[in-house]
Fold this sequence. Notes:
The protein has one domain. Helices cover 59% and strands 1% of the residues. By secondary structure, it is mainly α. Strands 1-2 form a two-stranded antiparallel ribbon. It is built from 12 helices and 2 strands; from the N terminus they run ααααααααααβααβ.
Amino acid sequence: METLKEYFETIPSLHRSLILAGGLFFFYLIEYVIPYVNLSYRKPNHAGINIIFTMTTAVVNFALAFLIVWACDYVTAHKTGVLYIFPLFEWAFVLGGLLLLDLIGAWLVHFLQHKIKWMWKFHLVHHTDTYVDATTANRHHPGESVFRFVFTAIAVIITGAPIWLVMLYQSLSVLLAQFNHANINISGKLDKVLSLLIVSPNMHKIHHHYQQPYTDSNYANIFSIWDRLFGTFRTLDKGKLIYGIDTHMEVKENDNLKNLMAIPFQKYRSPAGSKFEGEEV
C-alpha cells in the first residue's frame, strides 16, 4: 500500500500521459481484432476530431490542476471529509474514496449534464459521435472538461481524498472510459458479470443510443453500482443500437470540428425521444 501511495503521490506527468496514450492505443488496436459492431468508417480519419478534443481536455486539466492540489492539501492538512468520519482500514479507505470520487466526479456531473439544458448543450458534443470507439471516451467539449474538473475538486472537498488517491482515481477513470467506449466484443455472459461491478462496454454502449430516454441511462464511468442504485441502469438489444444523437445526425454537424465547438452556443433542439424497449434493472 505504501508503494502505491508513494507512486501516485508523485506520479510524473509523463507517466500520466503514457496511461492515457497507452490505454487508447491498446484498445484501439483490439478493436481491429474483435469489434463489437462492424462500423463502416475510416478509423484514422474518425480519430482525428476526437484526438483534438483529447488535447483540449489535457489543456483544461493542466490549467486547472492547482484547484485539485489546493483541495487535496486542504483536506489532508485538516483531516476533513467523509473518509475521516469513521476510522477505516487502508483498503476500505481506498475503495471508499474511489467509490465517492466516481459518484461525484463522474456519475453526478454526468447526470446533471443530461438534466440541465445549458450543460447538456456542451455534453451533447460527446453524444454526436456516430461511430463509438475508444477515441470517443475523450470526445468532450472544453466547456464540459471544465464542468468535470470542478466536480472532481468538489468531490475531493467532500470526501477528503489525498492527492495520491485522486491521481489513482483519475488514472482508473481514464482507462475505464476507454475500455467501456471501445468497440470490442466481449461475450454476453462475461459482460454481464463485469457490469455487476464496473461499467462494461455493452452496458455503456446503450448510453450512446441515438434517442432518449436510452441516452439518459447508464451514466457511470467506473462503478456500475450507481446506476443500479439510482434506477438509471438499462439494457437494449445490440441489434437495435444506433449511435449518435437524434438532433445532430447529419455529417456536416457531427463530423465538423468548427460546428462541434459551436454547438453549445447554437439554438437548443428538443430530442425526439422514444419508449424503452429494453430492460430496467
